[in-house]
Design a protein that fits this description.
Layout lengths: L1 H9 L6 H16 L4 H17 L2 H14 L6 H17 L3 H19 L4 H16 L3 H19 L4 H17 L2 H17 L5 H18 L2 H19 L7 H14 L2 H22 L5 H10 L4 H10 L3 H14 L4
Length: 335
Amino acid sequence: ALAYGLHLLWNGVFSEAPVWLTTALEDFERIQGPQGIRTLQTLRNLAEAHRLQGDVELARREYQEAIDRSDGDLDPRAAAHAWNGLGLVALDLGDAVAARTAFERAEEYCRMGVGPDSELTARTLGNLGDTLALRGDYERAIELYSEVGRIYATALGPDASDVHSAEIAVARLHRKQGDLADSAEHLDRVITRLESAVEPDESYLVQALTELARVRAVQGQWSECSAAATRATELAVDVYGPESPQAGPALAERAWAQLQLGDLDAARRDALRTEFIGQEHLGDRIRWLPERTALAWVRQRPTGLAVLVDVSVESGLERDAIEVFETVARTRGRV
């Protein structure tokens, strides 16, 4: 029951996974008792399944129950996992203060029981960094993500995907903080290392190039923005296909660059593709996301609306801009 429940959870079948995990939990409670290692692990798995299913209040209660049942002094790793889960639930509920408290407790247990250089510690620091970034504390978030990258590099090697993810996060935070030169320098190093790898991780190369395009856009370097976005788009299309969501963010940046460079037809094409990709990906994800997370995705997903309107206005076709609004309003009505 546990194995099948986890199989369903990992494959996104969130409607059925809780049924099997509940059965497993009842069995482990009968065999090991309410504080058994497998019992508590299954309880956390069930909480995560409910969180992903969208029942965040139930997930919160289950993670809290896992914390109450466990003895953090005897099993700090289990306590760290449970506090991390409770923090993610708090983020889903929009409570950044509670999330920060939970991740800080998880960090305490990580350093108490699993050590400062464990992968669990790195994951906890990353969660804490995300929470601080949401509250605008970019400087502290950069420190935490730099530590995350160091831990993963030590544990997994400098070319591990988790190292690339942490370094791109640091560059993104530098951009949000306004340190554009530091962000670009950081991304250049990441891109160079990825391109020189024997088996480069294309997904992180796409992310790094897209983030570099965003930096160049803020700097007003539109030719460089277009070049980086073009490379990211071509790579994403080559690896994932022409309608993949991975291509959307890069297309959006390229559309802005083309608009600024005066190529209105190219900007319009990319903006329409971006809007289509964003709509399709939204339709795939909106069905199972918790409401607050779903609305956050609606705000953050790739969209070509603004570019399309600007292209219409620049072309002197204000009527087209009105039609764009009406079309998008209809297609997004399902949200």
